[in-house]
Write a structure and sequence with these properties.
The complex is a heterotrimer. Chain B is of the alpha/beta class. Helices cover about 25% and strands about 20% of the residues of chain B. In chain B, strands 5-6-7-3-8-9-11-10 form an eight-stranded mixed beta sheet, sandwiched between helices. The longest helix of chain B has 18 residues, at about 185-200. Chain C is of the alpha/beta class. Chain C has helices spanning about 50-60, 85-95, 105, 115-120, 130-140, 150, 160-175, 190-210, 220-225, 245-250, 255-260, 300-305, 330-335; strands spanning about 10-20, 25-35, 40-45, 65-75, 80, 95-100, 180-185, 210-215, 230-235, 235-240, 310, 315-320. In chain C, the strands form two sheets. An eight-stranded mixed beta sheet of chain C has the order 6-7-8-3-9-10-12-11, sandwiched between helices. In chain C, strands 2-1-4-5 form a four-stranded antiparallel beta sheet. In chain C, a hairpin with a 2-residue loop joins strand 9 (about 230-235) and strand 10. The chains are: A mainly alpha, B alpha/beta, C alpha/beta.
Chain lengths: ~300, ~325, ~325
């Protein structure tokens, strides 16, 4: 003892009512963040709705999405076919609903791998620096220097169309931004005093990376990921439009837009319907990204 | 004598690469520094920004690569330019209390991490030790549950000190630990350092640009200029009878209460870039007493009066104590009092 | 002290609120100041005392979300609230110059420093650029900038912090303002450079009769350039008076505490006396004296309500229920 307990300390004490155990505090913290952050709230609702649509597709869709009925081809909106039918007589609304499954699944799945790889590489490269940093930076430059779609198209041609090809193609390209974001943040954090204190304390590099640096950089790639999902959906749609995406007859938004544009002057709903689905999903994810960025900025 | 020293730095040189006009140069942020710290001693390092005082601290704790020289902890210096790891015996307190704690961890997590990883105490007494550490730095143990963002600057700096103490160090290197704090809080932290020395027998290397803080706390002060120690003496001796013109100027520049100006001229100009180190004495470009010889001879640290004097100065024409006491008309045309 | 008919600057019961997520929080609470031509006035306070906001309010430079809720700022007898935006800008440009803590943020980074000083020569618009340039270089050399001809063409980032601050002061002096507002201009500088700048400021004010309003956290710095001083705490003025008197016999316990907590070279090795506690956070101001929770002399009356300002003899004043005075009696007692 000996040191006088200052009033400063006493004055700053947390009131016991506000102190909660870790998990509960985080839950309440998140709840408060949503209330204080309408952007995030709105985004989460939109994204949850699209996910719900994907999950509940068998219930929501009145028709089988690949069931053809050539007698009712290109029938306009009606009581039974809300958005009409396409050139093969398939129900457009049902196809949009079912397509959300494929589009969302591929988009989210193809974010996970780049996120993990990019973040891990960025952490290590940013922390170690030097030669390794230079080598990885050049590799990233090479990947980025390629026009993204040309690279994806080349890969899809090499591997053949299909969900797996799209997945791999996107993964190879899109780890780079994650790596760059995390690398930059890590480099800044490396010279922050608390990381230097950990180094003086002779903690292992793994511990410093995982315990002290990673929790402080992870918000950045997560925010980026929410906008990356949008890009992936657009990429899938674009590939579908180019005929390189999910093979027919499986419903996919991009392919539907491509098919529908032929009949745009007469049956505009064929292209606009899936287009709106892409826009709404992208909008929701963008809001989530913005909201997360704002929620985490206060804490930093 | 050396064997009783806790920290023995000799011939320390730290180089940083600089790219200028396509060529790689090395500039020496620290250029041949000897520094000894006895157990329980508080040694102050003062100098302007860019003088290399922080680099000395960072080299001592192993945060920057040493070009040559030896840093020894508790044992006589070895001649190899290798840094011996201190195993937690040397810890550092940083300047900015707002960046020296992990914002994502509670205070308890940060303290117990040290205790657990370094097995300072058995697992079951970690919490008890955390509370002890908090009391030791004058904080209530309830604050263990807080996160850094919920604390004031002074409290954070105390936590940073508690975190350093968790290693049970023998030497604390404090790099400008109070310059980011308000005056009233600053006094508490300065007193805390004094208390820790008295109670734990800690040695402290205290770096500051503010001479007044150093004057009240340190036993011995080394004045750093362009990567070198230019004068070193027990605090009272250094501040009472500075012999190096730089020390004199630095002291004169400290703002004092009341409008009375220090009668000694303040230092003119600015520290030259390390890429253009003056020949001979490095201070000669700003020295009020510069003579021809100063540009030829690089002065070494020499005892001031008696051969074994602890007051050492690196000046060819050190200011005579007699002259300090006498009239000052000689000194650069300043008005007499 | 020179007295004009109307004071150069008069601040009357200035109140400033900061808008937070939890509603408005008082940051400056009823600050009044009078500054005559040629006065050098210091405002001393710790972070959060409201000293910088007070200064910014004069220039109309309050940051977004910070609002002046009441009080008057009167420049040469004219209330700035009655001025149009353009008038105010004209007055601020002509009569008031400001020097900030960080010169880098107030100098244009992509413009050479010389032309920036030339632009400041508003009073000399009638001169040719050539003449104004000569004058700017003259000013630079008067500010102690070595090699001004060469530095004229330098960009701000090519200069050291000390030289940059000299450039700032040069461009402030360029418009020949009657009043110079300084917001901690030497805080980021080394003691040696700080000393050079302080000497320069003191000399300039003496020579050209420029008034100075100098905000700092450092009592000693204020004492070097100011004739009188105002001590702020928790948004309120705690004490004011001539520098020497305030330091020799402080009236407010806070001033006394600050003096005790301040390390001083001339005292040698000595234990400091901290005030204890921490400054109140924004919005956590107590009902009574803001310093009461930290004051060793606090009594019940201190916490009851707002403490009134008391004018004392010798141009001094204090906001304290029981000022630390035996020698100095309140003005009303003398009558």
């Amino acid at each position: 003892m000996g040191v006088r307990t200052s009033i400063a300390a006493r004055g700053k004490l947390l009131s016991p009512g506000r102190r909660r155990s870790g998990a509960a505090a985080r839950f309440w913290g998140a709840g408060r963040a949503v209330r204080a952050n309408p952007t995030l709230f709105a985004g989460v609702i939109i994204v949850c709705l699209t996910i719900a649509v994907a999950v509940l597709a068998p219930i929501l869709a009145p028709f089988d999405p690949i069931d053809q009925d050539l007698t009712h081809a290109l029938a306009g909106p009606s009581g039974s076919h809300w958005l009409g039918t396409d050139s093969l007589g398939r129900d457009v609304f049902s196809r949009i609903v079912w397509a959300s499954r494929i589009d969302l699944a591929v988009a989210f799945a193809s974010v996970v791998a780049p996120f993990v790889v990019g973040t891990a590489v960025g952490l290590v490269v940013g922390y170690v620096g030097g030669r390794l940093d230079a080598i990885v930076a050049r590799m990233a430059d090479v990947v980025v220097a390629f026009p993204v779609y040309v690279l994806i198209i080349a890969l899809v041609f090499a591997l053949g169309p299909g969900v797996a090809s799209i997945f791999i193609a996107i993964a190879i390209v899109s780890w780079v931004p994650y790596m760059r974001i995390v690398r930059g943040e890590t480099r800044i954090l490396r010279s922050r005093a608390f990381v230097e204190a950990a180094r003086v304390g002779e903690f292992s590099h793994i511990r410093i990376l995982l315990r002290h640096i990673a929790p402080n950089v992870i918000s950045q790639p997560i925010v980026y990921a929410s906008s990356d999902v949008i890009r992936d959906i657009l990429a899938i749609a674009t590939l579908g439009y180019l005929g390189l995406g999910v093979p027919p007859p499986a419903p996919e938004w991009g392919a539907m837009i491509a098919d529908g544009q032929e009949y745009f002057s007469t049956d505009w709903m064929l292209a606009v319907g899936p287009g709106v689905a892409v826009v709404v999903t992208g909008f929701g994810l963008a809001l989530v990204g913005d909201g997360l960025a704002r929620a985490w900025r206060i804490d930093r | 004598m050396t064997s009783t020293m806790l920290l023995d730095v000799s011939g320390l040189r730290v180089a940083f690469p600089v790219r200028q006009g396509g060529h790689e140069h090395a500039f020496y942020a620290v250029d041949g520094v000897d520094l000894r710290v006895a157990p329980g001693e508080i040694v102050g390092l003062v100098g302007e920004s860019g003088s290399g005082k922080s680099t000395i601290a960072r080299a001592v704790v192993g945060l920057c690569a040493v070009e040559s020289g030896a840093i020894a902890y508790g044992t006589p210096a070895s001649s190899t330019p290798r840094v011996h790891r201190a195993g937690g015996a040397v810890q550092m307190v940083f300047q900015d209390p707002y960046s020296s704690l992990n914002p994502r961890m509670t205070i308890r997590q940060q303290l117990s991490e040290v205790l657990r990883v370094h097995r300072v105490v058995p697992k079951e007494s970690i919490l008890e030790r955390c509370e002890f550490l908090m009391r030791q730095v004058g904080l209530p143990p309830q604050l263990l549950h807080a996160r850094p963002s919920q604390m004031s600057g002074g409290q954070r700096q105390r936590v940073a000190i508690a975190r350093a103490l968790a290693f049970e160090p023998r030497l604390l290197v404090a790099d400008e630990p109070v310059s980011a704090l308000d005056v009233s809080v600053q006094a508490e932290i300065v007193n805390l350092f004094a208390d820790l020395r008295d109670r734990l027998g800690l040695s402290i290397v205290f770096i500051a640009h503010d001479l007044s803080v150093v004057s009240g706390l340190c036993d011995r002060v080394a004045v750093i200029y362009m990567g070198r120690i230019v004068e070193q003496a027990p605090t009272a001796d250094l501040f009472g009878h500075p012999r190096h013109p730089y020390t004199r100027g630095l002291l004169a520049a400290v703002p004092r209460m009341g409008r009375a100006r220090a009668e000694y001229p303040s230092i003119v100009g600015e520290m030259p870039s390390a890429l253009h180190t003056p020949s001979g004495c490095r201070f000669r470009t700003r020295c009020p007493h510069v003579q021809e010889l100063c540009s030829d001879i690089d002065p070494a640290l020499k005892p001031a009066n008696a051969p074994l004097d602890v007051h050492v100065t690196a000046c060819l024409f050190p200011i005579d104590t007699v002259e300090v006491a006498g009239p000052r008309q000689k000194l650069g045309g300043t008005a007499p009092q | 002290m020179t007295t004009h008919k109307a004071p150069l600057l008069e601040i009357d019961a200035l109140t400033i609120d900061v808008m937070t997520a939890h509603g408005p929080r008082r940051a400056v609470d009823g600050v009044s100041l009078v500054l005559h031509g040629g006065d050098t006035l210091g405002i001393v306070g710790e972070s959060g005392s409201g000293k910088s906001l007070t200064l910014r309010a004069i220039m109309g430079l309050l940051p977004k979300g910070v609002i002046q809720t009441s009080g008057r700022i009167v420049l040469r007898g004219v209330d700035v609230a009655t001025m149009t935006r353009r008038q105010r800008r004209a007055v601020c440009g002509k009569d008031i110059a400001m020097v900030f803590q960080d010169p880098m943020s107030s100098l244009n980074p992509v413009m050479r420093v010389g032309p920036q000083i030339v632009d400041g020569l508003t009073a000399r618009r009638h001169l040719s650029y050539r003449d104004r340039r000569t004058r700017a270089i003259e000013l630079m050399s008067r500010m102690g900038i070595p090699d001004p001809d060469r530095r004229f063409h330098a960009f701000p980032h090519q200069l050291s912090g000390g030289i940059r601050q000299r450039v700032m002061i040069a461009s402030a002096m360029a418009c020949e303002a009657a009043l110079m507002l300084c917001d901690e201009p030497t805080t980021a500088l080394d003691v040696t450079i700080q000393d050079q700048i302080l000497r320069l400021l003191a000399e300039l004010c003496e020579q050209s009769g420029t008034s100075l309003l100098y905000v700092t956290h450092d009592l000693a710095v204020a004492s070097q350039v100011c004739a009188s001083i105002n001590v702020m705490y928790g948004g309120q003025l705690m004490e004011s008076g001539p520098v020497a008197d305030v330091f020799r016999s402080p009236l407010h316990p806070y001033t006394l505490g600050l003096l005790g907590a301040m390390p001083r070279v001339e005292h040698g090795k000595r234990r400091l006396v901290p005030i204890g506690g921490a400054a109140p956070a924004l919005g956590e101001l107590p009902a009574g004296c803001p310093f009461a929770p930290r004051c060793i002399l606090a009594e019940e009356a201190c916490e009851r309500g707002r403490i009134d300002w008391r004018d004392m003899t010798d141009g001094r004043g204090v906001r304290c229920v029981r000022p630390l005075t035996d020698a100095i009696a309140p003005v009303e007692d003398q009558r």
